[in-house]
Write a structure and sequence with these properties.
alpha/beta, Rossmann fold, nine-stranded mixed sheet, globular
Amino acid sequence: MAGADDPWPDCDKANVNDMGPFGAMNWFNATAEDGTLVFVLHPTLTGRTTFPPMVYSHGATGEYAMYIDAFQRYTSHGFVVIFPHIKSPTDDTSAFTLDPMGGFTTKGVHFAKAANADKSSPFYNKLDLQNLVLAGHSMGATSTLMAASKLPEGTAKVAISQHPGICGPWGPPPCLPGSCNTWMPEDLKKVSSMMPFMLTTATNDGAFWPQPYTAEHELGCFKKSGIDSTKDGTNFVQFSSDICADDGKGGRYDRKWSNGGHDCPMKSASVETPWVLTAAKLYGQLGGNAASTCYALLWGGLQKQAGVEKFAMNAPKVAAEQNLLVV
């Protein structure tokens, strides 16, 4: 019975800076509603009745291998990571395969619901759909935000956008008008009225404007949203150039990629991974418990750590009352 499960471990019992208690990551290939391939990364599906799903959306030209270190961390802490593709693992590495408007993120959510209801699926009745997490990087971060704004309220418990595109009606440069529209400040305002939201970036992110202007524009978009009244809090964090520097280790034998600046989430033991995991644990496993260590970390503790260069928070009222804010 679900009630027989032990409580999920808080962040003082399961260190978000290290692997969690649920063991090695398993990989399962599945098919989405439109016939495209979905990778499902998961812990061993025993020992608990259900596991919260995390739909993770990749960046433009992105692939699973770019995020493997983070995924191993997330699954070891009890999350089932659903990694949807726009077209296919190969086609998605093309610069012409784009979907920033939420389509493939939504496809991942639909897959989670279908797999949980499919008696032939290994995930039948194994996914805790009441505690679904949305996360993504770059184009996938924009897709995450847009999907969160379009899905019915209550679909997800938290949305996390790592280095999303800059807000505006025409998308970040070098897009032509109408070619890759991205999110608007009112989209973020809508999301923040529905669920907690976090946006991460880096000072040396030069994806859309020369550094440090990309991060400045992202903070400007965050502030333009007017998110002074939120459901459960909104968080912006900017990491330093030093901690998000490219170490030259991004890639594999047949393909290389940067893992610095804009691609800081791809670094091994990335500084961003504990932030994503803390938010996911707090809202996907602990029900947003204001007395938890995860809560104290997300709304004050993590901001004190090395590498945080700038942050802006519209914190839950409880966090402010508990003096968890860093001024």
